[in-house]
Amino acid sequence: MEFFVILVMILFGAVVGSFLNVVILRLPVEDASIVFPGSHCPVCKTDIRWYDNIPIISYCLIRGKCRNCNTSISSQYPLVEMCMALLTVALYARFGVSFDFLYYFVFAASLLVIIFIDIHHQIIPDVISLPGIVLGACGSFFCTYLTWQESIIGILAGGGALYLIAFCYYAITRRDGMGGGDIKLLAMIGAFLGWPCLLYVMFFSSLTGSIVGIATMINKNKDTRLKIPFGPFLSLGGLSYLFFKPQIIHWWYVYIEMMAR
User: Fold this and answer.
1) Of 66, 96, 126, which marks where a domain is finished?
2) 5 CB-side CA count, 13 A
3) Could you give the CA distance from residue 132 to residue 136 in angstroms, rounded to a whole number?
4) Where are the beta strands (DSSP E) in 70-220?
5) CA–CA distance, 160 with 187 (Å, rounded to integer)
6) Do residues 126 and 75 both lie within one domain?
7) Are residues 30 and 117 in the same domain?
8) Which residues pair with 65 in a beta bridge?
9) 261 residues of the chain, pLDDT tens digit each
């Protein structure tokens, strides 16, 4: 029975991941609909048949190429579907079938979309983050993972902290170092995870972002003005806190005790 439930979760996550691919592709395009037209090849515009649109499986069967024009299809499609399938199973293992599962399913799906859109376009759509803040706050009244007080404070502290950092950076350098989208994203993460997550998420995203940024500059021989999207690192920080909160808190206290000696 448990195996059957996990299989259903994998299939459900992969199907939702297939829809998220459409959102990632079309949402940044002005006046584009995420519903119409149906799935089609971006090059020859041929409609994709249903048997060529089965998440993950179809990509493997057609060897990552359009059946009509033989154009290569981005590996991002099965990657997003696989990531959403794994996240769905992880959420089920964490929360079971419950309100918390649905609440954080929406949260995880939103972050996955934000990661890929920010990588490609260096934007975080307000149409995701702003409703996400409201949904996170409203859902906190029914969620067992956090309290509504933690959620409200998380919104204020999350958005306020990054706004203060961005303001200070601009005051010193006269350059924009962080976009408004990042500020709204951290407010959304605070809404879903509560204020206790913020210190870790900011530390995780700053550390990983710095490592990737330095490695990219060295590899491409770019100067220090190279722009690295920060949204993916904030999102990964939020997801890692969601699934590994007990371990993170444990090692945080271990670190504090070591520093106090």
Assistant:
1) 96
2) 9
3) 6
4) none
5) 8
6) no
7) no
8) 72
9) 688 999 999 999 999 999 999 999 989 888 777 777 777 777 777 777 777 678 888 888 887 787 778 778 889 999 999 999 999 999 999 999 999 999 999 999 999 999 999 999 999 999 999 999 999 999 999 999 999 999 999 999 988 877 777 667 666 766 665 667 888 999 999 999 999 999 999 999 999 998 988 887 777 765 555 678 999 999 999 999 999 999 998 888 887 778 777
**Are residue 208 and residue 92 in the same domain, yes or no?**
no
**Distance (Å, whole) CA 223 – CA 249:** 37
Name the residue range of residue 44's domain: 1-96
Q: Are residues 19 and 77 in the same domain?
A: yes
Q: Residue type at 26? A: R
Look up residue 133 and give its amino acid. Answer: I
CA of 37: how far to CAs of 25, 69, 119, in Å?
13, 19, 25
Locate 33 and state its tokens: 């609909």
User: For residue 223, what are the contacts with CB-CB under 8 A and spacing of at least 6?
Assistant: 217
Assigned token pair, 106 = 């929406």
CA distance 12 to 8: 6
Peptide bond into 37 cis (omega under 30): yes
Q: Which helix or strand (DSSP H or E) is residue 205 part of?
A: helix 198-220
**Same-domain status, 209 and 222:** yes
Size of the chain in residues: 261
Type of residue at 86:
L
Q: Which two tokens stand for residue 140?
A: 């906190």
pTM, rounded to two decimals: 0.89
* Vertex 213 angle, CA 210 and 215, to 5°: 105
132, two tokens: 């996400």
